[in-house]
Structures are given as C-alpha cells and as structure tokens.
Amino acid sequence: MNFFEKSHALGGLFPQCTMCHMRFRFALVLSFVLFGCGGSSSTTSPQSSQVAQITIENMEFSVPDSVSQTDHIELANNDSVEHNLMFMDESFGVDVAAGKTVALPQLKPGKYSFHCHIHPTMLATLTVS
Q1: Domain boundaries in the chain?
Q2: What's the CATH fold of domain 51-128?
Q3: 3-state secondary structure of 22
Q4: How far apart are the first and last CA of the chain?
Q5: How far apart are CA 126 and CA 86, in angstroms?
Q6: Is the pLDDT of residue 58 over 80?
Q7: What's the sign of the alpha-carbon dihedral 29, 31, 35, 36?
Q8: pTM of the complete model beyond 0.90
C-alpha cells in the first residue's frame, strides 16, 4: 500500500468529518491571518525634517548657518520685486515672485554657492550637512 492509499484508508489528509473539516479550515485561515500577513517592521526611526528658509529682503539673501540633508528648504522673497536663485554651476535655478515662497529640491551634503541672476550682486552660500 502506497502513501496515498494509506492516507485514504486512514481518512485522508483532510478529515472527512464535517466538524473536523471546519476546524481544519478555520485553523488554516487563522494561521494565514496571524502569520502570513505580517509586514516588515523598520527598526530605524526616520530622521526628523524641519523647514529651513532662505529669505530675500532688501536685495540680500539671508541664509541659515547650516541645514540638514533631511530639511525641506524654502526660498522666501520678502522684497517687492522678482528674484531668482541660481546655483553657480547652473545645475539648478528657480524664480520667485515678490512676496512669494518656493520650495527647493532635497540637497546632498556640501556647499552650494548661488546668486540672483536678475541682480548679480546678490550672492550667498548654503551649507548642507
């Protein structure tokens, strides 16, 4: 007698008893719910991000001493005329209308020198750590 014949003779792999069959199904479903749906948990807590603001006022940039790589950086134009911020290597530039605020992209650690292309005497450097 092979495995399948022995199994059938002993009631098969799945019990024929209706109550036993229901218990087996319940246990099977419960095991999937408890063990099969577990998501991965992260052991690292995300770094907190803050808003760092570069402001333009009286035709000058005001830059924080240093910002974190995770900070959201904004450029606020508090002047009554349009300005822009252009990196010296021209890899990024953004216009900002009078009285408006715009978001800058996430930046990798380093020093970023920039100027206002409209007003070339406006120069500054931002340090990202």
Answers
A1: 3-36, 51-128
A2: Immunoglobulin-like (2.60.40)
A3: helix
A4: 74
A5: 12
A6: yes
A7: negative
A8: no
